[in-house]
Amino acid sequence: MRPSRRVPSAIGKPNSGRFQIQGRCGHIWSGWQRGRITWGRPYDKHNAEWILARFQEWGLDAKIESFDVPFPTPKERLVEMVEPTRFTAKLAEPTVAVDPTSSQHQEQLPVYNAYSIDGDVTAPLVYVNFGIPEDYEMLDCLGISVKGAIVIARYGQSWRGIKPKVAAEHGAVGCAA
Length: 177
What we know:
This protein is an alpha/beta fold and 177 residues long. It contains four helices and five strands. It is elongated, with a radius of gyration of 23 Å. The model is unreliable at 1-36 (pLDDT under 50).
């Protein structure tokens, strides 16, 4: 067993604590500030090695381990309305003046739900408010079914990844959340 060393701490030093945290994390997050997606890329390896070196400096018995993680990315993405008039959604978020990384479109992940199934679906569209169970109960009370439909749910009130699951439980064949 290695003798332990104390990890540097800023407890009791209110001004230096903020500086120390920013100083250490600034190196790690600089890739994200440039809008880079770093996992599986050379910059990610650089971050891991830098963190490993800090842990070892502090006396921790640390090592780097690698894992293969399935992370699907789409080959094709298309959302369009076909009736009564044709409309194709842009599927890209606009640049926002207060967010300097929002203009770096080439380095951003595409908009999609990572673990949704592949396929083409053409069906009626039903708006489900936030797409939470209470919204489906309200639609049922109004006599509106989502069975066989594509639902569109607005952002908020729940995690967006659960919205397709709840939609499928109610018979929807697709979900835009």
